[in-house]
Amino acid sequence: MTNPNPQSGSPDKEPASEAQAAQNALGNTERAEVATEPDRSVAKPGPEPEPKPSLGRLFLDNLWAANTFTVTLLSLVLAIVVGAVLMIISDPDVLSTYSYITSRPSDAINSSWTLVSEAYANLFKGSIFDPEAFSGWLNGANGWQAVLAPISETLTYAAPLVFTGLSVALAFRGGLFNIGAQGQATIGVIMAALAGFLLPLPPGLHLLVAVLAGALGGAIWGFIPGILKARAGAHEVINTIMLNYVATYFLTWLIVQNGVQDPNRTDAISKAVDSSAQLPRLLGDNLRVHAGILLAVLATWAVAWLLNRSTLGFELRAVGANPDAARTAGISVTRTYILIMVFAGILAGLGGSNMVLGSTASALTPLVVAQIGFDGILVALLGRVKPWGVLLAALLFGALQAGGNRMQSYSGISLELVTVLQALIVIFIAAPALVKAIFQLRAARAARLQTSLAKGW
Amino acid sequence: MEPGEIHALLGENGAGKSTLMNVLYGLYQPDEGEILVDGKPLKLKGPSDAIGAGIGMVHQHFMLVPVFTVTENIMLGAEQIRGGIAGFLDRRRARREVTEVSERYNLRVDPDAVIEDLPVGIQQRVEIVKALTRDVDLLILDEPTAVLTPQETEELLTVMRSLKAAGKSIVFITHKLGEVKAIADRITVIRRGKTVGTASPEASRDELAALMVGRNVRLTVDKTPATPGEPVLEVAGLVVDDDRQIRAVDGVDLTVRAGEVLGVAGVQGNGQTELIEAIMGLRPALAGTISLAGDRINGWKPKKVLRAGVGYVPEDRSVDGLIKEFTVAENLVLDIYDRPPFGAGLALKPDAIAASAKERIEQFDVRTSSAEAAVGTLSGGNQQKVIVARELSRPLKLFIAAQPTRGVDVGSIEFIHSQVIRERDIGTAVLVVSSELDEVIGLADRIAVMYRGRIIGIVGPDTPREEIGLLMAGISPDAAHDAIAAPAADKPGATTADSPGVADGSPASDAGSASEDEA
């Protein structure tokens, strides 16, 4: 009556001790490594001698990181597979080859492969590296700018997402679900643009003032739900969603007012931001990448420091993890809630400034902020609400955006597929148990992860 | 397990008692080994299998829907349906069943009462009735007495005896030695997931305790007589509401002097929590004054109260005391993180935090794999030590400990008690609130008994248990004294007189009427 492969513990049970956790985790890697082979691995019997605490901890941390990394990677793979299926289904020519798949399967397979591989190749070429441009540069057919163009595009799209992602992640760590990054970014973009074309200031100072104006706008828009939450107990999710609408329609109204609207235009577009208030381009005028990405990296570092190395971050994390205990320990929960939302607003507002002070646009239009606030939620989740994780996630989303443009123009795949891909990645990441089940990995940590993501509610 | 046997499962917190029973009830799957029922191996996939096999369980935390009636709660999960496909709930039949079961085992409950209106002892009875209506032969009671008054505990033991007489087997999980000795037929002691021995109820308390923790422990607290100094905490006419805006503290006067331990005894929910939260500034005082060493501290924020030299061990460590996701080191500075040497301006000083954590882990014997381990991975006793270490590591004028050893193993209890006394001996005023009478008697130099938001009496630590127990049930000091003084022969009469009245809810009033009868 012996089970050849005893389970090392029920998945949703917290390991009772560090040693046991380490052992469980050990079981997991073994399983993960052999997952592709027939499952013959036998969990190691008996208690392992525990390594030195520091070493054990290190090992565990690495493993844990590897574990989420694996899930993230596999989520990407799954999303790409589903995306491929969608491409085939949505292409009538390829789909028609499937009607006679039994007589000539090679037709269906070849045409599908051509379609999908070209589309993804274009996605890659448009976002990271284009070998043709590289060989063109070697032959002297084009300049070095063409080689760096994909990266430049990726960074341009990523910069605002870093800010909004950090905004959502920071609030999340403080126990608040900031759906309002969109609205905060909208007010940020308005303030930045107004400062950018209304104030006659010298270069340098003008840029600084415009950026700060954007941050201030976001801060105001974050402060409102923050104080409503702290003083009146109004739920921040509802208030931030409502304020998104207010901000969006305020922008639409503002653009066509006298003094704001471009006097030479009849459509809804504002005056352009003075060049003295624009973020400098990093690689010359032909490439769009601008100093916003540097600010984004700086902001990532600042948020990481704030969270982990500051007293304010300690309060924020304490309130996020257990407001009752925080209050009992003398931390003012209401003050912290307000601060969290103000900081989240500042970050989202900076993201908004990027949209009008950078190279994406130089004037306000109703759609000037695009979807950066909502994408920020996805970026924050994909980045596991950790600052550097958010940076990486924003780069991935930026790459998808940049590559998507090329995919659309070269392969005729609709740009919306990129949005679908983004959504799929996040869905798979939010459901690690699903991913692990598909790839037959043991889902020891799945339950914990899910609850950590669901906690904002 | 034999039929008609009460088998006590004794073990420290985290010894694996509850896990074992959860396996038995089908909530967890065993990794190895098997369960035999009537000689046959049993595969349990979930609680419904367990119920099918005749195993019922009353959890430590009740699994009742507060806004449902007793009948509705009992039918939950085994709804009786009539009207065929229309599927109406057959409340009448369920109600009849409840009445029948509760009469058969002399477990009086009102089938139409709403759960949230019932006292804890009756709620527990509902849980037992719920298990019994499922026709179980084996009943698992997981720490059933943790939330009961001494009187309610006595009633529970009576119920257990009558169930035993009816041929039901009971597994009784606990870490309270007295109850085990009072009721068990056989005792199995578990330590660190292994059976370390079986004992008969004749074994002495010390033997059992030693078996439980694996070494000899002192159950009494060693201390010298107190040398009370100046009053440190003075509370006068304090009135506080609870979360539902119902009066919880109703005119309390208290004085705690430097160098003494004032114990507040009382059944949970008689205003102790609100009293302490008001002192800590966590809850507004509606009337009255609170002063700390002469300063009026009404309306101070918690941070200011803490800074003024008050140490506070909250009663619910997982909710108010610790942040489980935080490391041990972070939890050790939870209320002083922004003070030198741990914080300067906006920056935290991780090195100072780590260094002090290392020191205190050693000093307070916190068993953890490292200071960087999440505090949630520690056992209950060690979590509590983290809180105690945090609070006692700064200079204090007043130390407030609410339920300092709830859910804590014997070894840690001993340690925490000695730390409390040590703090008293260096001249700190200590206020201990506990629903464990033994703890209050063991620690306190004076005992204040709280009942329905008032201090009903302040007595010395040598007062007999029974007298304090009656005070806890709301009988005024004189009446309590009389009741105890009454001839011992009357006592069994008093307990039987208790039981019929209990059905209508309040054991306190019953005990009251019983003692009036005697008077």
TrEMBL record, chain A:
Superkingdom of the organism of origin:
Bacteria
> Where is the region Disordered?
1-52
Q: Which InterPro entries match?
A: ABC_transp_permease
- Ranges of biased composition (kind: Basic and acidic residues): 30-51
UniProt subcellular location: Cell membrane
Regions crossing the membrane: 64-89, 154-172, 179-199, 205-224, 236-256, 289-307, 337-357, 363-381, 388-405, 417-439
Gene Ontology CC terms: plasma membrane
Q: Per the record's keyword annotation, is Transmembrane included, yes or no?
A: yes
**Keyword Transcription regulation in record:** no
Q: Where is the composition biased (Polar residues)?
A: 1-10
Task: Give the UniProt keywords, A-Z.
Answer: Cell membrane, Membrane, Transmembrane, Transmembrane helix
**What is the first-listed, main subcellular location in coarse terms?**
membrane
Any one GO MF term held by the record is: transmembrane transporter activity
Q: How does it sit in the membrane?
A: Multi-pass membrane protein
Q: What is this protein called?
A: ABC transporter permease
